[in-house]
Amino acid sequence: MADYQSFDGHGVDVAVNRADSLDKECLAYIADHPGCRVLDLGSGAGGQSVRMAGAGAHVTAIDQFDFSDTFAEFQKGNLRFILGDMANLEELLNGQKFDVAICQRTIHYLRYDTAVASLSALRSLVSGKLYISVTGTGSLVGDAYSATDTPLEDRFAELSALGKEMFQINELVCLYNEEEFKEMLTQAGWQVDSCRMTAFGNIQAICSMT
Hints:
Elements: H1 14-17, H2 21-32, E1 37-41, H3 47-54, E2 58-63, H4 68-72, E3 79-83, H5 89-93, E4 98-103, H6 112-123, E5 126-134, H7 140-143, H8 161-167, H9 178-187, E6 190-197, E7 203-209
Parallel strand pairs: 1-2, 1-4, 2-3, 4-5
Antiparallel strand pairs: 5-7, 6-7
């Protein structure tokens, strides 16, 4: 697809069009661990899910927008979709275990305390790596965000009207700088193995169990 798409006011679905650097690192891990079980949180229309399934992983994708019909078209036996909110992981997955989780451009749609709780719950479901990214306050999206200086516990706000139009993000978000993002991951019980800011001002991290 040539054009980037947006679904349900949650920004453009980058993964449908391309794999970014974090996606590629996750795919490299899967190549070294054929048959691993991967949880794709905030999967969108399945761009990365399909790539991971094609690389040999058994993928469970979760999104609060209903992509059931889209995933049904992929016809891959090692790929399934669950409609739901990642704030309810334990209920949605009913004790299922995974080797890897990936959560790209999703966690900022949760309040800070809900994000910490969800990532804490994720630790009991994932035995290996977590590949995760968030929109940074230093990004162009952050330029349209007025809550940068609000304490994390209270930081949950809309973009400006121009920001909504430009980035197709109509939901409340909690954006982070790099240190705040690492703090959230650590508070949730993850060990941050690497963390970096992209050229676009977004923040990517690879975590493991503590």
